[in-house]
Every structure is written in structure tokens, then in C-alpha cells.
Design brief:
The structure is a single chain. This protein is 59% helix and 2% strand. By secondary structure, the chain is mostly helical. It has two domains: 218 residues, no CATH class; 264 residues, no CATH class. The protein has a three-stranded mixed beta sheet with strand order 1-3-2, with helices on one face. Helix 13 packs across helix 15 and helix 20 packs across helix 21.
């Protein structure tokens, strides 16, 4: 999945700003309030997205000096947090304390690695954050447009600072591998086409004039936008493109693994803990992946035989090449996807007692990034700002986007997967910093992958092809455990990783290429999915076994999602407590 860019200030995982007067050391609310106020101040575009309008004209600070200030404040807040005695806290506050502690520790620890200077990946960066920005904002008054124009005017300075940080990273050996960067220059050059009014940056001004803005003012705002995009912004993007093509690309890394970077293996080990919220190491995860691959492969063999094919490989070859499985036009793919979303929507009350109010929509992935990105992703919305969540679908390379993937893809990205979980979290009776600032990949992506299992119970995989699609997606996440650790901890080449996924999944070659590039550029992130899914399935099996006839799958799902995104150890404690309470429920 992919969120709308939380902020253009990406130098630290959790940005903080200069604190005010010290709060009482034993007041958890004072610490969390100070943390959250500082977070919003240093992540101004995200603050705007969730309804904090005081930073509406700001972009943020990506400098290393700011990253150091953030880490220093995190350390001070952490010391205050650790001084708060557990004995006086409720169970809810103990959870709040544990989550904030992990968050602050991440900021402090992450700032010690040189990789903090790596401000972009093969699919994202400050240039795409600006292009995405309008999608996460509301435009209801002249002031909204004025603030957006101020942000656009500030972008060249942010671009310059980002290039300074990235040049230092390049000089010190913190550089992305060549193997993952094919087509990256298009993600820069494609943002501002020849006709500036066709740029996503111009989108707010291409809409119909708001009734509360005069025709003269609207024309002036449009003119300023065109002037900025044609002038300073086009120049900034051209400068970025020139830097990438002439300085960065010629010096990209030859090895696919992050371990080849300075202190890279220690960084990868740290990332494993961050993304999985476990103490598993690379060898343990690699072995887990091999076991899961063997188990799922056996299931795929059964489905292939049931479909009338002698082998799994023969069925996968047919699924990859038979034209009947592919849309002929982007519109056809979107229509099939839209119908699937409504089929699933109608099933949701069978599996949940609590549904979010915020709806979700369907969009195509932007053209300048689609060719090199994954098959789909989800962008969160904002109930406060009246912005829906969106399920983005890749409509390029249609011969690589099989229709038998649509059911499993949709339950993961839309509902009951990412949209349901994230939109529900935004409405829970939790402190704001947890509703909007707590994100643990193993939980969020583990839930998305667990949701693919719910597709079985919904009856979505009603043909052998769709069932093989489900198993292929399970295999996809299992092979991630093998190839991610293989490349970043065991010296695997990109070619070996691609061959492994081609052999074990039913994914198309284009999807595998995009996915392996993603794992190369985002080490460790892909490990979270399968590990999170297995934990949720383990907890469901425990609840079913211990509760017997009292087990209600709707209430179990509500309990899993009821505290928002949490580390996996906190989720286990949460579900164990729920099981105990369910035993006593009459």
C-alpha cells in the first residue's frame, strides 16, 4: 500500500520540533500532547490533511540540522516518558506509553544511521510528494488556494535542500542500487508536461471556479499557478532531473543489497525490528519464508490439478498468457475492479459490527509513475477534511494485469483491508496522535494480507483461476521473506531474486520486476506483511479454540482493529484480554 505523503519533511521517521516549557515528568498526557503538537508542526502538509490549519502554507524542513533537532527532542521526551511509573497508569495509558516509547526510540535510533540522508526511493521522493499534495488537501476558500500557491513558491528551496542532503548521501556511499532505478527519471520529468495545466500540480485550478471566489480573483489565482509551474517549478524539476541523470545515476550502487552501504547490515537488522515489531533476525525470517513457500506451493499444486492441469507450472503458464484472463482496455480493468468492490461491500456486515463512515473511491495510478510501480495501492483519506480514501489501480501493461488477481487485490487494498482498517482507526475513540500518528507496518500490512483470507469466507475465489490468484498472492508475500533477506543479508543478486519469484508465484514478469525493485529500494518493509498476517491468524485460531461456541468472528475482527495500529506484541496482549472478557460475556 501507499499513503498520501504524510509530509514533505522526510528526513526522519517521526519529525518533531522545538519543545516548549517542560511538562511535569509524571504526566503522560503532557508528554503525548507535546509530542503530537511538535509532530504536526514539523509535518505541516499532514497537519493540513487532518484538519490542523495553522501550518497550511508550510512544506517542512528536510535539513540534517532539523533531523538532529528532532532526535534531540525525541531523546528528551523519551527520558520524561521513562520516568512515568507504570503503577499509576490504566491499561489504556500503558498501551499509549508503550507505543510512544517505541516511536521516540525509532526517531533517536534512526538518526544515527547515514541512511537518514536517503530522501527518496525508486518510486517516491520530494518531487512526487509535491505532485501528490493537492489530492490530500481541501480547496474551499480563496485562502486555501493562496496557501497552496505559497507552498508551490517554497518548493524550489525545499528542492535545493533535498539535493544538498542527497548529494552528501551520494558522496558518503548511501546510494540506491542501479538495478532498482530503471525509469526513475520519468517520475521527475513527467510531473510537469509541456502543457503545465495538465500537471497534477495544477489540478486544483483546473476545477470549476468556487462560488465564493470572484471571476477576477479566480483568473488571477489560475494565472499565478500557471506562472509558478511554468517558471520556478519547471526550473526546479529540471534541476532535479539534471542532478539525477548526471550526478546520481552514474554513481548508483552495483550491489542490490543494503548491506553494501556503510554500516548497512546493522541498518538492515534495525529495519527488521522496526517493520516487523519482533525480535526475529534475518536468518529466522529467511527460514520462515522457505517453510511458507513449501506449504503454499503444495496448495497451488492441488488447485492446478483441480483445474485440469498436470502441473502447477503448466497452469501458471496458461494464467500468464491466455488472453481471456486480461482486460483489453484500462476502462475494462477499472469496471471489473469497481464491480468487485461493490460485491465485497455487500459482505462487510457479516464480518464486522463496526464499519467506518468514510467511503473510498477508485482511481488510476498517475501516468508518470505507473510504468515502474506496483499493480495497486491505497491512499488514506480524511474524515475531517471531507477527503475519501482511494484505491489506485495500475492500468498500464494490461497484458500483465490479470483479471484473476482482482478479487484478492481488492480485499487487500480496499475493504476489508487497508481502507476499512485505516478509515476505522481515524474514527476510534483514541487520542488524536494514535488515530493519525500511529502506524506499524506489521499490523497494517498484516491486516491487509489477513483480509485476503476473508475473501475465501466471502466466496470471492469462485474459480480455480481466482483461487490460484489468492495463493499466488500468499506466495508473493512468502517469497518476500526469502528474497528480501536474501538480497540484503545473504548476498543474493537481483537476478536470483527475480528467478525465485518467477518460479514460485503466478505473478507476471512485469509485476515481479517492479516488486523486486521495490524491495531493493525499501529494505525490510516487505517482511512485515507475512509476519503480521501469521500473528493475526495465530490469534484467531487461539480465540476459536478457547472460546468455542462463544467465538464470533465479527467481534474478533472488531477487537483486532479496536485499538488502531499497534505493535504485534501489544496486539497479542489486547486479544488475550479480549478472549478473557468474552468467556465471561453472557
Amino acid at each position: 500500500m501507499r499513503f498520501v505523503s504524510i509530509a514533505l519533511a522526510t528526513a526522519s521517521a517521526f519529525a518533531l520540533a522545538t519543545p516548549g516549557a517542560a511538562a511535569p515528568a509524571d504526566d503522560l498526557n503532557a508528554v503525548t500532547d507535546e509530542y503530537w503538537a511538535a509532530y504536526l508542526r514539523a509535518n505541516p502538509t499532514y497537519a493540513s490533511q487532518i484538519g490542523h490549519r495553522e501550518y497550511d502554507s508550510k512544506l517542512g524542513d528536510v535539513s540534517l540540522g532539523e533531523a538532529d533537532r528532532q532526535a534531540e527532542l525525541a531523546a528528551r521526551l523519551l527520558a520524561r516518558l521513562n520516568a512515568i511509573p507504570e503503577a499509576g497508569l490504566s491499561s489504556t495509558d500503558r498501551t499509549n506509553k508503550a507505543i510512544l516509547k517505541r516511536t521516540l526510540e525509532s526517531t533517536v535510533q534512526g538518526n544515527r544511521f547515514g541512511q537518514r540522508m536517503m530522501l527518496f526511493t525508486n518510486r517516491s521522493g520530494w518531487h512526487q510528494s509535491l505532485a501528490d499534495l493537492a489530492d490530500s488537501l481541501t480547496f474551499r476558500s480563496k485562502a486555501d488556494y493562496e496557501n497552496y500557491l505559497t507552498r508551490l513558491a517554497d518548493y524550489p528551496a525545499l528542492n535545493d535542500e533535498s539535493l544538498r542532503v542527497s548529494t552528501r548521501a551520494l558522496t558518503e556511499g548511501f546510494v540506491l542500487p542501479c538495478a532498482a532505478m530503471t525509469g526513475f527519471d520519468q517520475t521527475i520529468s513527467g510531473v510537469i508536461p509541456a502543457d503545465a495545466t495538465k500537471s497534477r500540480i495544477y489540478t486544483p485550478f483546473a476545477a470549476e471556479r468556487p462560488a465564493n471566489i470572484s471571476a477576477a480573483d479566480w483568473s488571477a489565482l489560475q494565472g499565478r499557478a500557471r506562472s509558478l509551474i511554468e517558471g520556478d517549478l519547471r526550473a526546479a524539476y529540471a534541476k532535479h532531473l539534471d542532478w539525477y541523470q548526471n550526478q546520481y545515476a552514474p554513481r548508483c550502487a552495483k550491489s542490490a543489497g543494503v548491506s553494501s552501504q556503510p554500516n548497512g547490515r546493522a541498518y538492515y537488522d534495525w529495519l527488521i525490528g522496526q517493520f516487523t515489531t519482533t525480535d526475529l533476525n534475518a536468518d529466522q525470517i529467511h527460514a520462515l519464508g522457505l517453510r511458507e513457500v513449501a506449504r503454499i506451493r503444495a496448495d497451488m499444486e492441488k488447485v492446478a490439478k483441480g483445474a485440469g492441469f498436470a502441473t502447477r507450472e503448466a497452469y501458471i503458464a496458461d494464467l500468464r498468457t491466455n488472453p481471456k484472463y486480461y482486460a483489453n482496455t484500462p476502462e475494462e480493468l477499472l469496471e471489473v475492479t469497481a464491480r468487485e468492490t461493490k460485491k465485497i461491500d455487500g459482505q462487510m456486515p457479516r464480518f464486522f459490527t463496526l464499519l467506518p463512515r468514510l467511503p473510498y473511491g477508485l482511481k488510476e495510478i498517475p501516468a508518470e509513475t505507473a510504468a515502474g510501480t506496483t499493480t495497486a495501492y491505497y491512499n488514506q483519506g480524511s474524515p475531517e477534511q471531507g477527503i475519501a480514501g482511494f484505491y489506485f489501480v495500475n492500468t498500464t501493461k494490461l497484458d500483465q494485469r490479470p483479471l484473476w488477481e482482482v478479487p484478492v487485490l481488492t480485499v487487500h487494498e480496499a475493504v476489508p483491508g487497508h481502507h476499512h482498517q485505516i478509515a476505522l482507526q481515524q474514527e476510534l475513540p483514541l487520542p488524536e496522535w494514535r488515530r493519525y500518528g500511529a502506524y506499524f507496518t506489521a499490523f497494517v500490512e498484516g491486516w491487509g494480507l489477513y483480509s485476503e483470507r476473508l475473501g475465501i469466507e466471502m466466496g470471492l475465489y469462485d474459480t480455480p483461476a481466482k483461487d490460484m490468484g489468492r495463493l499466488s498472492y500468499q506466495m508473493w508475500r512468502a517469497t518476500r521473506l526469502v528474497v528480501d533477506t536474501g538480497m540484503h543479508a545473504k548476498g543474493w543478486s537481483k537476478e536470483k531474486a527475480v528467478a525465485y519469484m518467477l518460479d514460485n508465484t503466478a505473478l507476471s514478469p512485469a509485476n515481479i520486476e517492479a516488486e523486486i525493485n521495490r524491495y531493493i529500494a525499501n529494505p525490510g518493509q516487505a517482511l512485515a506483511y507475512k509476519i503480521g498476517q501469521l500473528k493475526i491468524e495465530e490469534l484467531r485460531a487461539r480465540a476459536e479454540q478457547q472460546l468455542g461456541a462463544k467465538f464470533d468472528v465479527r467481534r474478533f475482527h472488531d477487537a483486532v482493529l479496536g485499538q488502531g495500529s499497534v505493535p504485534l506484541d501489544a496486539l497479542e496482549t489486547q486479544i488475550d484480554a479480549w478472549i478473557a472478557s468474552e468467556r465471561n460475556r453472557t
